[in-house]
Amino acid sequence: MKYLRPLIAVAAIAAALAAIAWYVWDQNTGQLPAGFATGNGRIEADQIDIATRISGRISEIRASEGKLVQKGDILAVMDTRELAAQLARSEADFRGAESQVDEVKALIEQRRAQLTLAQEEYARSQQLIERGVNSQAVADQKKSQFASAEASLNAAMAQLTSAERRVESAKALVVLYETQIADATLTAPVFGRVLYRLAQPGEVLGSGGKVMTILDLSQVYMEVFLPADQAMRTGLGAEARIRLDSIPYAIPAYVSFISPEAQFTPKTVETAEEREKLMFRVKVRLPEELVKANIEQVKTGLRGVAYIRLAGTEDEPWPAEFVGEPLPAAATTGN
């Protein structure tokens, strides 16, 4: 017993020292300097629905789920046989309307010649009356013929205007069907990956029917929430780092969006104390070239933490754990 009490005392002192050491380590390890903000979130990319502009039957689908697509790649094609027939008919109507314009223009030239002749005959009859050769009745007849020729020319001019309007109408129909045929080929609006395939070849979809959904990989980001004092010191383009739970590397990023108004923090911010505050939504975006260089490893939904350099701390170095090891060429950045 005389040796037991000293051993208990030594053990108690050791335990106390260990507790103090653990507390000091817990309070200092992983803490960022005051010039940096942090927030938790997950890797995200906008989803874009690829939908039809006109109703019709799907002829073929060229992109399967998970396929990487470039901007402008053909994703699906609608059946355009009916539209092609309507286009051929409208083109024929357009050519017919143009022919009518040519006919009316020829008629106008004829009416102008008749008007010129009637005008000359009327003037000549007036001269003959002055010489006492013609009677007034003949002069009145020539005047009537002149007025009739002038009215005929005006009528032909009106016909030309009407024919030209028919040409414009027929041309508009041609453009309409050409546009609808072009819209029947659905292309990728952005660089991305097919997330869902929602229709199959042979299905008939209405206008606005969804064919597939793709992820816009031209903008991969993490959304975090910062309190007002930090948001006020965060600028667009501010330097940032993202650390994901699944990889040990710090990924370079930058601030691409700061909400102009505060909001209640959603429950994704995991402490009750922070959820009670008004926060500002901030997007931390991964550089597009970095995403493309590691495209096969990009996965949305991966959780992690974003770290943002605040204004006025440009000369302050990042902590060693954020600069010590470079991002490898095939590092996972988060589908």
Write the layout of secondary structure elements.
Layout: H1 4-28, E1 36-51, E2 56-61, E3 68-69, E4 74-78, H2 81-131, H3 136-183, E5 185-187, E6 192-197, E7 204-205, E8 210-227, H4 228-231, E9 239-244, E10 250-258, E11 263-264, H5 272-275, E12 278-285, H6 288-293, E13 303-309
Antiparallel strand pairs: 1-8, 1-13, 2-4, 2-7, 3-6, 4-5, 6-8, 8-12, 9-10, 9-13, 10-12, 11-12
Keywords:
single chain, 335 residues, alpha+beta, OB fold (Dihydrolipoamide Acetyltransferase, E2P), Helix Hairpins, six-stranded antiparallel beta barrel, four-stranded antiparallel beta sheet, disordered C terminus
Protein architecture, described:
- The structure is a single chain.
- The protein has helices spanning 4-28, 81-131, 136-183, 228-231, 272-275, 288-293; strands at residues 36-51, 56-61, 68-69, 74-78, 185-187, 192-197, 204-205, 210-227, 239-244, 250-258, 263-264, 278-285, 303-309.
- The protein is α+β, with helices and mostly antiparallel strands and 335 residues long.
- Among the domains are: 50-79 and 185-210, Beta Barrel (OB fold (Dihydrolipoamide Acetyltransferase, E2P)); 81-183, Helix Hairpins (Orthogonal Bundle), CATH 1.10.287.
- The protein has a 6-stranded antiparallel barrel. Strands 5-4-2-7 form a 4-stranded antiparallel β-sheet.
- A hairpin with a 5-residue loop joins strand 9 (239-244) and strand 10.
- It is elongated.
- The relative contact order is 0.18.
